[in-house]
Amino acid sequence: MSYILKRIFTALITLFLVSILCFLVFSVIRGNPAESLGGTYISAEQLAALKEEMGLNKNVFVRYADWLSSFLSGNHQKSFFYHGETISSLITQRLPVSITLALLSLIFILIISFSVSILTVKRQHNTIDNIVNFFTAAGISTPGFFLGLLFIFIFGFIFKLFSPGLYIDYSENFWGFLGCLFFPALAIAIPNSAMLIKFLRGSLFNELQSDYVRTARSKGAGRLYILFHHVFKNACLPALSMLGMIIAEVFSGSIIIEQVFTIPGTGRLLIAAISSRDYPLIQALIVYIAFLVVLANTLADIIIMSIDPRIKNAGKVR
C-alpha cells in the first residue's frame, strides 16, 4: 500500500510541475492572445481593455493561481477563442473521442505485438525471423502521420473502404464512429507495435535460454506449456514497462493523426488552441493529456509490482 501511495504522490507532483512549466512557457513566448483576438486595427485603448477583460494585465503568479483555482474547481473559465464556451465543456465534448482512439490503438498494439511475437518466437535466425525484423525496423522508422496519409490514399481513394474526411459522432452511431477510428488507430498502432514486437521477441528469446527452461524441458514439459506458464510471464515484465512509454507515444501521435483524418478530438482542439493563443485551453488540455499518460504509467508500475514483488522489496520500479 505504501508503494501505491508513493506512486500516486509522485504522479500528483509530476502533474503539478507540468502545469507550472506549461504556464511559464506560454507566458514567455512571443505573441499575445488579446492581439490575435482583437485583430490588426484594434486601438491601444481597446487592446488594454481586452487584456484587462482576459486577465492578461495581471502578473504571472496571479494568473497561474487564477488558472489553477479554475482548473481544480472544474474548469469553468471561458475560452479566449471559443466565445461563450467554458473550457470544461470544450474538453468534455472531445475527450471521449481521443480516449476511444487511444484505447482502440492500444488494443491493436496488444493484438499485433503479442500475436506476432508468440507465433514467431521459435523461428530465430531463419527467413521468418528476417522478415519480422525487416518489417519491425520499417514500422519503427515510419511516422504515424505518413501511414495515415498512405491509408487515406490506398484504402480511402483507391479501394474506397472509407470516405476520407467523414466523421460519425458516437452519439449518432457508435459502430459507425468506431469505423471512422479504425484506420487512424491502425496508423498509430503499427509503429508502436513494431517497437513492442522487437522488444518482446528479444525478451522471449533471452528467457528461452534460461536455466529454468532447460530444467522444465528435462522434466518433460512441452514447449507451449513452458512458453505460456513460465517464459511469457517473465518476458512480459520489461514489455509492460515499455508499454507505459508506448501509451505516451499513442497520445502524442493521436494529436497529429486527428489532424490528418480530421477527427474532432482533443489533439485537434489543442492545435487550434495553440494557433489562436488560447492559453487557458492549452494549459488545461496539456494537463489532461499529461494526467492520462501519468495515470497509465502509474498503473503499469503497479501491475509490474503486483506481478513481481521483488520490485517492491527492492524499493524501486523497473
Describe the structure.
α7 crosses α8 and α10 (223-260) packs parallel to α11 (266-275). The chain has 318 residues and is mostly helical. The chain is built from 13 helices and no strands.
What share of residues is helical? over 70%
Given as residue ranges, the uncertain stretches (5+ residues, pLDDT < 50) are: none
Shape verdict: globular
Structural class designation: mainly alpha
Largest sheet properties: none
In quaternary terms, these chains amount to single chain
- Total DSSP helices: 13
Order of helices and strands: HHHHHHHHHHHHH
Total beta strands: 0
Strand residue content: under 5%
Element layout with pairings:
Blueprint: H1 2-28, H2 33-38, H3 44-54, H4 60-72, H5 87-120, H6 127-141, H7 144-158, H8 174-208, H9 211-218, H10 223-260, H11 266-275, H12 279-307, H13 309-314
Helix pairs in contact: 1-12, 5-8, 5-10, 6-8, 7-8, 7-10, 8-10, 10-11, 10-12, 11-12
Structure described in brief:
The protein has 318 residues and is mostly helical. It has 13 helices and no strands.
Output the keywords:
318 residues; mainly alpha; 13 helices; 78% helix
